[in-house]
Write a structure and sequence with these properties.
By secondary structure, the chain is an all-alpha fold. It has one domain. 79% of the residues lie in helices and 0% in strands. The chain contains 2 helices and no strands. The protein is elongated and about 40 Å long. Bound molecules: zinc ion. The site of zinc ion has 8 residues, from helix 2.
């Protein structure tokens, strides 16, 4: 479901943003293990979402 994917993508983006905003170990160039985990799930969902968008636009 596209909406479900979008919601998960937005949730992951928000989780990563809020972690990045509060975590002192995360910087622009380095991430703590938790930040890295949040970032990679956000990046994976973003890629999946953008691929879905591209397919639908044909
Ligand atoms: Zn962190």
């Amino acid at each position: 479901m596209a909406e479900d994917l979008y919601e998960r993508y937005q949730t992951a983006a928000a989780a990563h943003r809020s972690h990045h905003g509060t975590c002192t170990a995360c910087t622009d160039t380095e991430r703590c293990p938790a930040g890295q985990r949040l970032y990679s799930s956000f990046a994976r969902l973003q890629t999946a979402y953008l691929n879905r968008q591209r397919e639908q636009r044909r």
